[in-house]
Amino acid sequence: MSLIPHYINGAESGSAERTGNVFNPATGEVQHQVAFATTAEVETAIAAAKAALPAWSATGLVKRADVFFKLRHLLLERQDELAAILTSEHGKVLSDAKGEISRGLENVEFAAGLVHLLKGERSEQVSRGVDVHSVKQPVGVVGAITPFNFPVMVPLWMTATAIACGNTVVLKPSEKDPSASVFLAKLFEEAGLPAGVLNVVHGDKVAVDAILDSPDVKAVSFVGSTPIARSIYQRATEQGKRVQALGGAKNHMVVMPDADLDSAADAAVSAAYGSAGERCMAVSVLVAVGDEVADALVEKVASRVGSLTIGDGTDAASEMGPLITREHRDKVASYVTGAAAEGATVVVDGTTQTFEGDGFFIGVSLVDHVTPGMKVYDDEIFGPVLSVVRVQTYAEAVELINANNFANGTAIFTRDGGTARQFEVDIEVGMVGVNVPIPVPIGAYSFGGWKNSLFGDSHIYGPESVHFYTRSKVVTTRWPDHTPSQINLGFPSNH
Ligand code: NAD
After folding, report:
1. Side-chain half-sphere of 78: how many Cα atoms within 13 Å?
2. Which has the closest alpha carbon to 447: 252, 161, 30, 95?
3. Distance CA 465, CA 446 (A)
4. Is any ligand 1 atom within 6 A of the Cβ of residue 325?
């Protein structure tokens, strides 16, 4: 069985001292072992990134951009190969894997055009003969820690901008589907990135802690579940690092009585069950305003899910693949089986659907009459389970969402522009869709939630990530202009 190695300073490395299993979730078989880095191996990767920093940060902006233009081309050329890796280790269907790659490409395109955003400011003659200008300089070595659910896109959220800003990176992808990161690092180098600028180490808490505790790592980007995001934020900020740690989600989709209920039901099915619900922007709560809307939506969603094809992601007929692990599948199932005991109504029970073989499959579930306080509502399930919460008014819908501790994404479905606009004002959530169920911002904007969905000040990718991955410096300049100088012990004033 092959060992997925680390990729440090332009070469594969890694002992088999500590390893983990990488499954094919569609068959349930272990297909690879992945090396788990020791502290010393992570330190080697950080040292490689540190050594590569002076030359890379001094590389001209146009030359840096050139790497991203070439990377874009290579990613497009090799997307089938990369999508096949995603499907075999994550389980998502091939079309979804390609969708993920195309969203990751937006970050590469953004990085290719970054020169514009690295411009500083300049003010002439702030005092007689004195000018001021600001510059944006790289922060240094960046630690990037990513989740299992987007093995290409989330590493690109971080690496593209960090590298374009002149930083070097140590990436620690999810140990559950680690191959895509090594593939990406090799593609970066094929595109012209010097060895050591992007290093990949695999593993668990040991590897992550080595990144967080290294004084040579100056900034940490993390995406994953809320408890880990919180602990990473605390540990790394205590050591004076700059940190953005994106956490979990519980995304609500409000359906107003005036909405087109058929398109709302289509949107809810797509957004709740796409990628088996393993998206941080998946809709997991349908908030129906009024019982009439609720009854109609439940009936429409239930009638649509019967025809969904669930199967191996490599089969072109499959619309939804398996979950990432057997344990996760069983945990997702426990929320559905527990929901009835909590007083909810299980309208479609995906746990009873049977599948051939040992893959980590589960059917989709729809649970009605869910209320806050039930585990099925309070926890992030991260599987194909859609809860319906019934409210009577718009105000109740807003109150429900604003009381939730997660605040990643939300959406409203309505034909009324005034209601939509008010929702945009009232709602305390980082990303909002109006008749758009998964409002993931295009690469030129930044991505991020509020409250327990993000710890730190900067959203990820886009303009906010340029801010995150650079430090600004302000330079005040006076050149001899042949006027006589004099001593003045007063505080420098521009008046
Ligand atoms: P996870 O938190 O289990 O793992 C994320 C990363 O942290 C992995 O690299 C993992 O190896 C590492 N890790 C796990 N336990 C650790 C520990 N105790 N100490 C240090 N590092 C540890 O998340 P996951 O299951 O891989 O991904 C799913 C989660 O990610 C969901 O909660 C989902 O909502 C969230 N997510 C959020 C966003 C977002 O943008 N907000 C995007 C994608 C996924």
Report:
1. 18
2. 161
3. 7
4. no
Cα 280 to averaged position of ligand 1 atoms, centre (Å): 10
Provide the CA 383 distance to its chain's centre, in angstroms. Answer: 17
User: Quick one: what percent of the chain has pLDDT higher than 90?
Assistant: 96
CB of 225 within 6 A of ligand 1: the answer is yes
Tell me the whole-structure pTM to 2 decimals: 0.97
Structure token pair of residue 185: 């690092």
Cα separations in angstroms, 397 against 93, 164, 287, 392: 33, 42, 7, 8
Pocket perturbation via mutation, ligand 1, pick of 89, 202, 228, 325 by most ligand atoms within 8 A of CB: 228
User: What are the residue numbers of the active site?
Assistant: 280
Mean pLDDT estimate for the chain: 97
Nearest Cα residue to atom 36 of ligand 1: 224
Are 303 and 261 a contacting pair, CB within 8 Å? no
Place of tokens 């806050």: 372
Which residue's alpha carbon is nearest to atom 40 within ligand 1?
A: 246
Domains of the chain: 3-247+453-475 (3.40.605.10), 251-434 (3.40.309.10)
Q: Is the CB of 281 under 6 A from ligand 1?
A: no
> What would the pLDDT profile of 333-342 be if each residue is shown by its tens digit?
999 999 999 9
- The larger pLDDT score, comparing residue 485 to residue 55, is at 55
Task: State the Cα–Cα distance between residues 331 and 324, nearest whole angstrom.
Answer: 12
State both tokens at 70: 């070439």
CB-CB neighbours of 490 under 10 Å: 5
